[in-house]
Specification:
Layout: H1 2-48, E1 51-52, H2 53-56, E2 59-61, E3 63-79, E4 82-87, E5 91-96, E6 103-104, E7 109-115, E8 119-121, E9 136-140, E10 145-148, E11 157-158, E12 163-168, E13 173-180, E14 192-197, E15 200-209, E16 219-226, E17 239-256, E18 261-263, E19 266-273, E20 276-281, E21 283-288, E22 291-296, E23 303-305, H3 309-314, E24 321-322
Parallel strand pairs: 1-24
Antiparallel strand pairs: 2-23, 3-13, 3-17, 4-8, 4-12, 5-7, 5-11, 6-10, 7-9, 10-12, 13-16, 14-15, 14-17, 15-16, 17-22, 18-19, 19-20, 21-22
Amino acid sequence: MKFSKSIRWKNKKMKNSWREGVLKYRVLLVIFLSWGMITLSCSRRKENRPLHVSNLVQTVQVTRRSFNRTLTAYGYIRSLKKTDIVAYTRGRITNIWVRDGEKVEKGQRLLSLKGYYSIRASEELGSSYKKEGSKDIMKIAPVSGYVTHLTKSIGSTVEEGEVLVSIVDLKNLLAEVTVFGDEADSIKPGQSAVIIADKERLSGKVSFISIEIDRETGARKVGIEILQKKTPKLLPGDFVKAKIVVEKHLSSLAIPEEALLNDGGQKVVMVKVGQTYEKRPIVIGLHSQGYVEVLSGLSDGEEVVTTGAYELLHRGIKKKIKVED
C-alpha cells in the first residue's frame, strides 16, 4: 500500500516537472520570437530612414573661369635679324677665331681668308666691303649677335658667293611652324602663343600666316614672334613646338569635369535644389585644367553634385537621400 502511494507520488511529481519544463520553454520561445520581431522591425525602420547626405554626396558651386582653345604646330627657329658673311672670291680659310653658337660683339674678328678679294656681309642688313688684294683678309663682325652656320674649318676651300658664317640677333627670333588644312583658318595675326623647346617655354605672338598653300600637303607657314626680354637658349634651326591660342573665353561659367554626366547622349548634371536634387541638361563648351565650360543650363551660385552624381542619376538612391539642414 505504501509502495503504491510512493509510485503515484513520484508519477505526479514527474508530470508536474514536465509541465513546468514545457512552460519554461514556451516562455523562452515567446521571448525569442518577440526579440526577433523587435529586431526585424527596427531593421526595417532603419532601412526606411533617410541616408546621411554627407556620406554619399558632395557638391560644389558653379564658378567662373577663363577657357582657351589651342592649336599645336611644329617648326623651326629663325632670326628676324641675320647677317651672312659671304665669300666673293674663291679662296682658302686660313684662321677661325669663333665657334658656332658663340656670342660676338660688333667689330670682333671672325675668320681670315686668303683670296683675291675680301669678304663682305650680304645686303640683308647692309654690307661691309674692303678690298685687300691677294693677301690674307681678316673679317670682323659687322653687328653684334650669335655665330651660326659656321661649317668651315681652317684649310677649307670656299667658292665665290658661299656663306661662311652667319650672325643672328637672338633678341629678335621667330618660330616658323606649319599648320594643315582648315586649322589655318582659325589663326590670325596677334593671337598669343607659347613656344616649347626641351624645358624652355617662351611666350609669343602670331606675326603672319602665309597665303601660299602647299598643293600636296595643304600646309601653310605661320610665323610666331618670340616675346622675351632675356636672351633665350634657342638658336636658329632649333626644332620647336608651338601652342597657338585660337579661341579665348573670359569669365565663363565652369564646373568640375567629374560633375558632368552622360544621359543617353545628353550632357547633364545633378543640381541641389532646396531639400532634394534634380537632373539638369546643360550645353558645354571648352575643357581646361579639369573644368568644363557651361554655355547654358546653369546659373551663378548653383550647386552641382560631384561625388555621388552617378549614383543619383542611375541607381535611384535620390529617393532615400534627405538633404541635411
